[in-house]
Specification:
heterodimer; A: about 450 residues; alpha/beta; Peroxisomal Thiolase, Chain A, domain 1; about 30% helix; B: alpha/beta; 3 domains; 10-stranded mixed β-sheet; two-stranded antiparallel ribbon
Chain lengths: ~450, ~450
């Protein structure tokens, strides 16, 4: 029994590079970085000074129907980014949903639309919370829990908690687009996006939906979540944006970004039935694999040196696609830019691709867009999809002295792209994309 | 890992439960907790995790006196974990032992997967609040990042911060049991572990693993967790009588009681379980998952999504409403949930309003509180115990249901019954609905 073909029909990438595909792609191909000194707060004492922040002109109200503007008041920034990315993806796929018109004209019945979104641990807005906490202090200025319980907590808006539940990314997207089908929220660090896309793929393959919104979004531009990133010990401590160097022998750490990507994933037969031509779609999602690293020496804080789990996810994705590793033309890796992560990933790619790796460009988007956390899988899949559609590659930047095997800058053909991710905690994903043809 | 490891599977492949464990407010082992549920015991008492004496709600259902590092084989891998991860490890050790996996030498780590619905860890409250206040610029009513970080970088602990990530229970289970197969954590609020079990079964059905550990863990019994639910007015305020505060379906119910804990079950294909001679406890026969897509604060008033999830679960199990012997309700003891869940159950089981056709419905949250992300898996385990012993646990503290809540809620006392097919509901904030069908294995 062959599995149904599943297409990427629309993409909504958001990052410091821009809102939506055109800006994102222009900057990636030009090798322009979004990394700059942190703007959201004074990061001078954090131990990391740079970030790739979403452009200042980002306003969530521009991405929701007028009737939904009130609901944006209960959206943490992570939720805003997901809702905006889903709007971009729906438009890009030329989908009619209840968000943009008459439900009668919707491309799909509500119960045929699913939604699987990766989310991070969302930190409370510190200004809002501390404004309330500051009302419950004693004479010395110390926090008084009794006062908080008695009275202080009333300063928080009643719906405060709902801003920070990870499943609220998916919940808002399902409401905006009338998606009543299977929905899930995956919270596995940077593997969240890939795992969510994998869940959408499975739901479509088993016939439980025709269209799924999938991917993820995250913002760590909050002092608390930014510090959590720094405390993982893998952030670049300096001030030079060009020093974010995934897979370079001089790599000295990654950089926090914010954003993500939501993908419109459709069953090919349903896409055709709504008048779509597969040749006009971005790509076919041909294989997915997931695995878990067990690296007891670091308690799964970093991958094992051989990248064993990364290899096993890659092989599972290839197996589903019915391909050998020699078929891979381009890789979008996790590519964090820290030796403890790049080394194992490079080892895994060498194991997986062997001699082929020397002629396969490995394009790390984090060099320019930073680490989007739970948003990175969806963002990277959007980039991979655009590579297949345009038959062009983003620039490979900041890699003056590549790790062994990671030196290719041109592809001999662009038919198959491998997209990988690895989360802190050890979850790994691999996705195989192929060119979509009529 | 290679293709020859794949067992032949299909959508009709039967998925069975071969091991179970839980750490709950009613105890730390299968039989003790099940005994408590049959006798209508309460796990609710004054909150001790923090000083809640002035909070609108001063009580909760806490796990008592449990130290996970005494039950795991590799305590050195788990120093500094959060409470939630510890509960998951404790539950998983029980499930692993019951399933006899320790003695199963042929188990391939690459074919052992995990799908959890685990909640985030507990905020490190004291340094967090102190850092926020140290960084507070009262005039600008903003945090001064520099002052905040000067305090936080010296008072916060990197391990404690990392262990709050919601995938840490998953990471520690993988370390403890050398699980290298597909690994997921879903966090769909109160529906999470029901969804995890349904999706873990799907992973097995498509042949991506031989054995799955699944379930969930959570605790929100901490100052900001209780604050959040108090502000939503979702919690019971019955501070003068905590043990009877959780009273699902009762007319005097005034909110849910916060619980905590974990449940883990071992799933495998029937063929795999039989081939290794495992004892099969029950079958995960059906699963349904829908989104209300209605409002983030309210359930759809007709229970549209909940009813759809139940119908999907029944259809995928190939059973009719008449076949169902017990419904393990989401039954939170909030005004809204219990009436809408009743409406949804009636839409599925008593379409012409003939409630005599509907099976008994009861809520174990009346006894152990609401375990949030872990609520679904403890219901699923209860279903298996109900099937084993022919016993339906009661809805404790239910004296007089509200008008219109006219199902058989098994008030007060457990009931003997021939239980072969159970349906278990979980509904999450934001309109996430998941339902399982658990069936006796023949």
């Amino acid at each position: 029994m062959s599995k149904p073909s599943v297409l990427i029909s629309g993409v909504g990438p958001i990052s410091g590079l821009g809102l939506g595909l055109p800006d994102t792609w222009a900057k990636l191909t030009a090798g322009q970085t979004a990394v700059a000194p942190v703007r959201a707060f004074d990061a001078g004492a954090m131990g990391s000074l740079l970030a790739a922040e979403v452009p200042e002109d980002f306003k969530i109200r521009n991405f929701v129907p007028k009737s939904y503007r009130k609901a944006t008041k209960v959206m943490a920034r992570d939720i805003e980014l997901a809702v905006a990315a889903a709007d971009l993806a729906a438009r890009d796929a030329q989908l009619s949903t209840c968000a943009n018109g008459d439900p009668e004209d919707a491309s799909y019945a509500s119960d045929r639309i699913g939604c699987h979104i990766g989310a991070g641990l969302i930190a409370a807005d510190l200004d809002e919370l501390t404004d309330a906490l500051a009302g419950s202090t004693d004479d010395q200025g110390n926090f008084d829990l009794h006062q908080w319980g008695r009275e202080g907590m009333q300063a928080l808006t009643p719906l405060w908690l709902l801003k920070y539940l990870p499943n609220m990314l998916a919940c808002h997207v399902t409401i905006v687009h009338g998606a009543h089908g299977p929905s899930n929220t995956i919270t596995c660090g940077e593997a969240s996006g890939g795992l969510s896309i994998g869940e959408s793929l499975r739901v479509i393959q088993r016939g439980d939906a025709d269209l799924c919104f999938c991917g993820g979004a995250e913002s760590n531009l909050n002092p608390m979540s930014f510090l959590r990133q720094v405390m993982t010990g893998r952030m670049y401590p300096g001030t030079d944006p060009a020093a974010i160097r995934p897979f370079d022998t001089t790599a000295a750490g990654g950089v926090t970004g914010e954003g993500g990507g939501i993908i419109a994933l459709e069953a090919e037969n349903a896409y055709r039935a709504r008048g779509g031509d597969p040749a006009a779609a971005y790509a076919r999602l041909a294989g997915f694999g997931a695995s878990q690293t067990v690296h007891r020496e670091t308690r799964n804080r970093t991958p094992d040196p051989a990248g064993r789990g990364i290899v096993s996810a890659g092989r599972a994705a290839l197996r589903e696609a019915g391909l050998e590793a020699s078929a891979i033309d381009v890789v979008i890796p996790f590519g964090l830019g820290h030796p403890d992560w790049d080394g194992p990933e490079a080892a895994a790619l060498n194991t997986l691709l062997g001699d082929r790796l020397a002629s396969v460009p490995v394009i790390a988007t984090k060099a320019l867009a930073g680490n989007l956390g739970a948003g990175s899988g969806g963002f990277d899949l959007a980039v991979a999809a655009q590579i297949l559609k345009t038959q062009q590659l983003p620039a490979i930047t900041h890699r003056p002295t590549p790790l062994p095997g990671l030196g290719a800058t041109q592809a001999d053909k662009i038919e198959t792209v491998l997209v990988c991710a690895t989360g802190t905690g050890g979850q790994n994903t691999a996705m195989i994309l192929q060119r979509s043809t009529s | 890992m290679n293709a020859t490891n794949n067992t032949a599977t299909s959508p009709s492949t039967r998925i069975v439960i071969t091991g179970m464990g839980w750490i709950t407010p009613l105890g730390h082992d299968l039989e003790t907790v099940w005994g408590g549920l049959q006798s209508g015991a309460s796990g609710v008492d004054r909150t001790t995790h923090f000083d809640a004496t002035t909070f609108p709600t001063t009580f909760s259902a806490e796990v008592k006196d449990f130290d996970p590092l005494t039950v795991v084989r590799h305590p050195e891998l788990h120093e500094g974990i959060g409470l939630n991860t510890g509960y998951a490890l404790g539950a998983a050790v029980q499930a692993w032992e019951q399933a006899g996996l320790e003695a199963h030498a042929e188990l391939n780590p690459d074919r052992l997967g995990i799908y959890l619905g685990a909640g985030e860890g507990t905020l490190d409250f004291s340094p967090y609040v102190a850092s926020n206040l140290a960084g507070w610029d009262a005039d600008a009513r903003k945090i001064d990042g520099l002052k905040w970080a000067q305090h936080a970088t010296v008072t916060m602990d990197a391990t404690r911060e990392l262990e709050q990530e919601p995938n840490m229970a998953l990471a520690h289970l993988a370390l403890e049991f050398d699980a290298r197969g597909p690994a997921y954590n879903c966090l769909t609020a109160c529906a999470a572990s029901t969804q995890a079990i349904g999706e873990a079964a799907a992973v097995l059905r498509r042949g991506d693993a031989d054995v799955m550990l699944t379930g969930g863990c959570h605790t929100m019994i901490h100052p900001l967790g209780m604050t959040g639910f108090n502000r939503l007015t979702a919690l019971s305020n019955r501070n003068d009588d905590p043990q009877t505060a959780s009273r699902p379906f009762d007319d005097t119910r005034d909110g849910f009681v916060m619980g905590e804990g974990a449940g883990i079950i071992v799933l495998e294909t029937e063929a795999h379980a039989k081939a290794r001679g495992a004892t099969i406890l029950a079958e995960v026969a059906g699963y349904g998952s829908t989104a209300d897509a209605y409002r983030i604060t309210d359930i759809h008033p007709e229970g549209r999504g909940g009813a759809a999830a139940m119908r999907q679960a029944l259809a995928s199990a190939g059973v009719t409403p008449d076949d169902v012997d017990w419904v393990a309700a989401h039954g939170t003891s909030t005004k809204e949930n219990d009436s809408i869940e009743t409406r949804a159950i009636k839409a599925v089981f008593a379409p012409d309003d003939d409630v005599s056709k509907a099976p008994p419905v009861s809520s174990i949250k009346s006894m152990m509180g609401h375990l949030i992300a872990a609520a679904g898996v403890v219901q699923a385990i209860t279903c298996v115990m109900a099937i084993r012993d022919g016993k339906i646990p009661p809805t404790a503290n239910l004296k007089a249901p509200s008008a219109g809540l006219d199902l058989d809620y098994v008030p007060g006392t457990a009931r003997d019954a021939n239980v072969k097919v159970c349906l278990s509901n979980s509904f999450g904030f934001g309109g996430q609905n998941d339902t399982l069908v658990i069936r006796a294995h023949d």
